[in-house]
Amino acid sequence: MLDTAKKQASTSGSSSLSQDREVSSIPRYYMGDESAPAESSHSPRDTAVEERESHWVYPSPEQFYNAVRRKNHDARVEDMSVVVPIHNAVNEEAWRRILEWEKQWQSDPSAPGPQLVNFVGRPRDVTWRAWMRGLAGYQMPFDRHDWTIVRPGAQGDTPRTMRYIIDFYAGRATSSAEVMSQAQPVSFHLDVRPAPSTIEGIAMRVHRLLHDMTL
């Protein structure tokens, strides 16, 4: 009875949150022509729909709140105006760093840019790097994602995939009041790198290491 009351209270509270969703800068790869976005005219409405279909779209504050509650995590409606923009900004930064890897590795600047196929949260799967950092006394990541991207390639070429590992580390504790007043930006550290599960992933890491050594 108590759980039911809590669920009803959380649902009623989330109804006051915005249902607007923000379109990310991350291009979305569709696994087949049948699911690709159709060509449309260039009216303002059709252009907006086309953009949403060609890019990943972040959850609305209401969706984010309900998802957190379903995972039995504590969440407050009033915090969503801070938490959701932080969530979106962190993902944008993760994609920016993936693009840095891709730009440094690819030799053809005219080649199509990468697109994100999917992402998987793996907070309980600690990477070897994070584990070694923990042994050295550093903090452990609070989350881990694996993002799979596709390099579309030229017309007729077979698209190639690459999996990236992202460890998320929290920085200095920042209060909601500081964030809202912009007195102190939220501090996060992202460790983004290609997964070493393929020869190419290992080669990309070695290439980055050699590049950094020559700077």
TrEMBL record:
It catalyses: holo-[cytochrome c] = apo-[cytochrome c] + heme b. It is found in: Mitochondrion inner membrane. Coiled coil: none annotated. Its EC number is 4.4.1.17. The keyword Membrane applies. Residues 42-54 have a biased composition (Basic and acidic residues). PROSITE patterns: CYTO_HEME_LYASE_1 (PS00821), CYTO_HEME_LYASE_2 (PS00822). It is an enzyme of class 4 (lyase). One of its GO terms (cellular component) is mitochondrial inner membrane. GO terms for molecular function: holocytochrome-c synthase activity; metal ion binding. Residues 1-54 are annotated as: Disordered. Its main location: mitochondrion. Keywords: Heme, Iron, Lyase, Membrane, Metal-binding, Mitochondrion, Mitochondrion inner membrane. Lyase that catalyzes the covalent linking of the heme group to the cytochrome C apoprotein to produce the mature functional cytochrome. Belongs to the cytochrome c-type heme lyase family. This is Holocytochrome c-type synthase. It comes from Malassezia caprae.
